[in-house]
Amino acid sequence: MATFIPALSTIPRARMTPGERRVAQRLDSLLEDDYIVWYDIPLGRQRRYPDFIVLHPARGLLFLEVKDWKLDTLHSITPESAVIDTPKGRKTVSNPLIQARQYAFTALDQLERDPQLTQSDGRYQGKLCFPYGFGVIFPNITRRQWDEAMSEEAQERVLPGHRLICQDEMLATADPEAFQERLWAMFDYRFGEKLTLPQLDRIRWQLFPEVRIDAPTGDLFGDEEQSEAPATNAVPDIVRVMDLQQELLARSMGDGHRVIHGVAGSGKTLILGYRCLHLAQATTKPILVLCFNITLAARLRCFIAEKGLTEKVKVHHFHEWCGQQLKTYHVDLLPGSRPVYERQVESVIHAVDQGQIPRAQYAAVMIDEGHDFEQAWLKLVVQMIDPDTNSLLLLYDDAQSIYQKGALKFPLSSAGIQARGRTTILKLNYRNTREILSFAYEFAQDFLTAHDGDDDHVPLIAPEVAGVSGPKPAFRAFKSDDAEAHYLVRCIQTWQEHGTELNSIAVVYTSNAQGKRFHEALQSAGIPSRCLQQSFDKHRYDPQAQEVVLLSRQSSKGLEFDTVLLSGLGALDSAEEKQAQEARLLYVGMTRARRRLMVTGSKVNWYTERLSELASA
Length: 617
Description:
By secondary structure, this protein is α/β, with parallel strands linked by helices. 33% of the residues lie in helices and 18% in strands. It contains 18 helices and 23 strands. The strands form five sheets. The protein has a six-stranded mixed β-sheet with strand order 1-2-3-4-8-9, sandwiched between helices. A six-stranded parallel β-sheet has the order 12-11-13-14-10-15. Helix 10 (318-328) crosses helix 11 (340-353), helix 13 (434-444) packs antiparallel against helix 17 and helix 14 crosses helix 15 (512-524). The protein is globular and about 90 Å long. The model is unreliable at 218-233, 402-406 and 451-459 (pLDDT under 50).
C-alpha cells in the first residue's frame, strides 16, 4: 500500500467527492509501499490544490485531477473549457487537463530552481532530472462511453486518451500492474535512474515548505508573476525535512484533543509548528503555545517567527502566561507566604472561576513539555480553548520529566483532556546519532524503566534511532575545575577553526557556579558566548546569534545543538537517593546533541566513573 498523506481514514467524508474517495482508495491499495500520495495539499502562493500528487523514486512525479462528471451532465468540452450541468444550473469550468497541467507547471517551475534536481550538463541542462506527468480521472465515465462520445481526433485536441483514466479502469478488482501502467502512460518520457532519498526529500522541501526544518516557510514560490526569477536563489545545499511519518501524523491529526507521546528528538516540536501553521490559516482567534521551560519558550518564539506566524500564534512559558493574564485583566495576586509563581497560578485559577478572567480566549492551545505540567495547570488551560474549535495538542515525553510534580501522574481526563483513542506514540529519534542515543540510554536506562499504560496513561517508551551515525561520545576527566574550563575553551577554538558555527555549540553545566566559571573562561579567550542563568537572559535567548550558549540541564530541555559539552559532572552528589534525578537530568543534557557529545568532569564520583566506563567500552 502507498503512503497516503493525510491518512485516508482521517479525511472527513464531506471533504472528498465520492469519485475522489474511490480514486484515493485505488491509489492506496493498488500502489506499492514506495509510492507517496498527497491529497488536496496546496501549492504556491496562490494556494492551488491538486487533487492528487503521486511521487515514486523510479517513476517520477504525477499530478492528477479528478472529476465526478457523468456523460449526461457533460454538455460540451473544448481544449480550454467544459460546460457542465449542475444542481445550480449550467456552468462553464476549465478543462480538467488544463488544471492538471497548471498544477504540474507551478510545481515544476519551483523544482527547476534546485540544481540538485536538474540535469547538470548536456542537451537538457537545467531541466528536471526525473520524469513528470499530469492527467485526469473520470470515476463515473467508462472508456467505451468516452470513446463513443468523442472521436479520436477530438480526444487528441481536448483530452488525449493516454492522459485519462476512466471508471472501468479503476475498479476495485483492477490489476495493480495494469492500473499503474495507466498512470505512467501519462508521462511523455521515462528515465532509467532512480531518485535518491536526498532528492526525494528535496522535492518535498520545495513543494511543501511547511515540512521544512530550520528554514522559513513564508516564501514558497516567490512572486509567481515574475517568471524570470533567479533559478537557484536561496536553495541550500543540504535540506532538512520532516520524516514521512512525522508529515503523515501532522497532516492527519484531525480536530479535537490530541496527545503525542514522543521520545526525545522525535520531532514533536516540528509537528507543533505544522499544527500552528495549519490552524492559523483556518481560525480568527489567536493560538496559544505553552511550555514550562523559559529558554524553550524563547526558542519556540523564534521557530514560530520563522514560520511567519507571530501575529496569530502567542508563545509563553506557563508562569509568564499566568502573569500576563493577571496584568491584562487587572487581577490582584492572592496573598500568602507561598512563592510568587505559585500564587500567580492560584490567582489565575481563582479569577477564572470567579469570571474575572474569561474562558475560551484561544482558537487552539498547544502544550509542549506536557510532562512537566500539573493537573491543575492543564485543567486551567483547557478552559481557555474556544468550544467551537475545541483544538488541543499535548506533547510529552516521560523520560524528560525532571520535576517531581510533573510526569503526568494523573489521568488526563481528570484535567478535562479528551485523549482516549487520540494518542499517538513516536518512538523514532531523528535528532541524535545512533552512538549518542545508545550512550545516553545505556547510562540512564535503569532510571527510565518502561511501564504499561492504561487508556489514559501512555507507557514510558524506549527510543529507537532513525539510523544516522556519527562519532562516538567521549569522556574526559580533569584534576581541577580550571583545567576542565581550559579544555572546553581549546575544544571550541579548534572546532571554530574548522568551520563550526558558534551557535551550534552548547555547554550544558550541572551547577550555576560552574556555568559562571566556564563562561568566564570563554570570555577571557575572546569566544562570543551567553550564559542563560537569569530569567532575563533566558527570555532574550536568540538561537540564531553567533555565540556559544551556556545553560543548565533543566534549561536545555527541548533544545538541540550540533555539538554539546556536558560539563561539571564532578560537582554532582553520588548519594543513592539523588541518582535517579541526576541521571534523568544527564539524559536530557546528552540528548541535546545532534552530532557530537563530549562529557567532562573534574572529580571522581559515581557519574564520572559510569560514563568513563561507557565511553571506553
